[in-house]
Every structure is written in structure tokens, then in C-alpha cells.
Amino acid sequence: MNHFSPLRKHRPLSGAEKSAILFLCLGEERGGALMQQLDVGEIRKITRAISAMGEVPAEVVEEVMREFGEKMSSYGGITGSVEAARGLLKGFLPEDRVAEILDEIEDSATGNLWGDLSELDEKILTDFLRKEHNQTVAVILTRIRADTAAKVLPLLGQDRAVDLIERMVAMESLPAEALRSIEESLRREVLAKAGRNAGAETEKQLVMMFNKLDSKVFEGLSRELERKIPAEFRTIKQKMFVFGDLIELKPATLAKVMREVSGKTLPLALRGAEKELRDHFLASLPARSRDMLEEEMRSMGPVKTRDVKQAQSELVEAAIRLASEGEIELPSGDEEDMID
Predict the structure, then answer these.
(1) What letter does residue 299 receive in the DSSP assignment?
(2) Residue 122 in contact with residue 155, Cβ under 8 Å?
């Protein structure tokens, strides 16, 4: 069964679709011979139309044939598919050229399904795979990114993982119809459900994006966002952690963060810091390390603002990474303002 929607009688057809119907009626031998007379651009358009056409009712075929001056009522319906397009093309194009054209069309038709799956949280993907037959799971694991597959496989259990690897090793080419069925199931049952969590993912992305913005740019945006979406923006701000927030870290915690960066990152970051924050950094270091850092900062000469911002961003990212690993605890930002 073709996974594309059948053509409807009253929907206006494009020129490429009408030509595709004619070629399908002519059959592989005659259609292939005629297609040789076309240029590559025309071949591509007609091939795309054939591949996406699906079932074409006899009434539609008749209407198209009238345009070409022929009566086709006795011909019946026809079916367009990737395989039908392949049969026409292989009569006059090399096999690798046929594969290239059809791969391009298949990619544009399916979108970046496997890439989208690879970006999903591995627990969401694993919950779906647990309910599927091992052969289906093996197919999916061969198409998603290797790093995602490596996260998912252990979650399925060792016994099942061994069977899946055996199936992947022995796997041959999968029929196109079977692959399309798997793709449709993944879109419907995995990506659609994952979309329900899109709000949380969007919020996470905004937090990361705001953390990397230039402070003056962020201040300008903040004024407008606080006016237009005050509640939503407050939630996002509470989850942000910026360079200035490092002053809230205790000396021992801050020293851990500083050890995570190398080279000139630390002196560069402090060259652009407020005095209070810079003093807090220096006070968190042993005397010898503090003297060496101050000397390095004095000897640096003029520095570019963008280099300072990048260095500060690296320190923030180091703090966030250590917090995610449970090594340190960051200020929550949830506390209400207090009045003494």
C-alpha cells in the first residue's frame, strides 16, 4: 500500500503530475524511451510526481488522456510509487543515477525523521522501542545516530541488546513498504508524543540562548519581555545562570569551577569583570595562585570584548556542567526578594 494520499478527481493537477500519469500509462519500455528525450530538470520533476502520486482513479486518468487527445477509459486506474518511478528510470539511466534521484526524492518526502529521532531524550525513545518487535527495533537502531543508539541499547537490557546486535549484523536491505510503515509509526507514536514536551524544550533552549547573549543586548530584551510576557519571562530568568551569578558561589565551589578552564580563559574573563566579582574570584585562590593570576592579567595588554565574553561564557558552562554532574550546587534563583 502506498503511503501517499491518492489523487482526487477534482483537485487541479500540475503539469508534472499530468505528465507522470501519461508516463505510467505508457509503461516502463515506452515511457522510458520517451523520457530519454527530456532534460534532467524535467526528469526530476516527473520522477518526483510519480513517486508521490499514489493511486490514481480511472476518472482522473481519463481526464488527463482527453487533454492528450486519447481516450483511456478502458485502461483503468494506475498506481504511482517509488518502484514505478525506478522501473521507468532504469530503462535509460545508470543504476547509480537512478538511486541518486530517488534518494533525493525520498529524503525530501520523509524529512529528517531519523535526525529528529536522534535528538530525542533516550528514555522517550526507549519507552517506544520496548513495545516493538526486535526486528523493528534493529532497523531503527541502524538508522539513528550512533551516539543515540549507544544510549538506548543498554536501557533495553543485556539479553535483548545481544539479540538486537545479532539482527543488525544479519540485516539485509529492507523492503521499501516495510520501511515506510516503520517511519509512519515513528512519526505518529514517538515524534507526535514528544511534541507535547516541546514547551519544556523551548524553555531550556531560551535559557541557554539568554545565557550566551551580550549583557547589554539581554538588558534591552528584558525590558520588553518583562512588559509583554512578565510571568513567562520571570520563569525563564529564574532558571538562568550568568557570569555575575558566580559571586554567589562559596570560595571552595568557585575554585572547582576555575580549575575546569585552561589557558588564558580565567584571566581573560576577569579582565572584563566587575571589581567586586573579580575580588571574589581572587579571594577564592591560595596566595601563590592569586599572585600568579594577577600578574598574568597585568601582562595581557589590551583584550577584545568578544574574547572576554567568550571566556566568561566558558566559566559559566563549566559551572553548569559541574552542577549537572552533581559536583557543585548552583544558586537556585527561586528565592523571593527579602526585606530586612
Answers:
(1) T
(2) yes
pLDDT in tens, 101-155: 666 555 544 446 777 777 777 887 888 888 888 988 888 888 888 888 888 888 8
**pTM to 2 decimals?**
0.38
In contact, 251 and 283? CB cutoff 8 Å: yes
Contact 73, 62 (CB under 8 A): yes
* DSSP secondary structure letters along 109-152: HH-SHHHHHHTS-HHHHHHHHTTS-HHHHHHHHHHS-HHHHHHH
pLDDT by residue (tens digit) across 196-219?
444 556 666 777 777 777 777 888
Please report, for residues 65, 80, 299, the alpha-carbon distance to residue 36 in angstroms, rounded to integers and kept in the order given.
21, 19, 72
Contact (CB, 8 A) for 333 and 267: no
CATH of the domain at 257: 1.10.220.30
- Residue 117 shares a structural domain with residue 64: no
How many domains is the chain partitioned into structurally?
3
Burial class (CB in 10 A: 0-12, 13-18, 19+), 88: buried
Q: Is 45 exposed, middle or buried (0-12, 13-18, 19+ CB in 10 A)?
A: middle
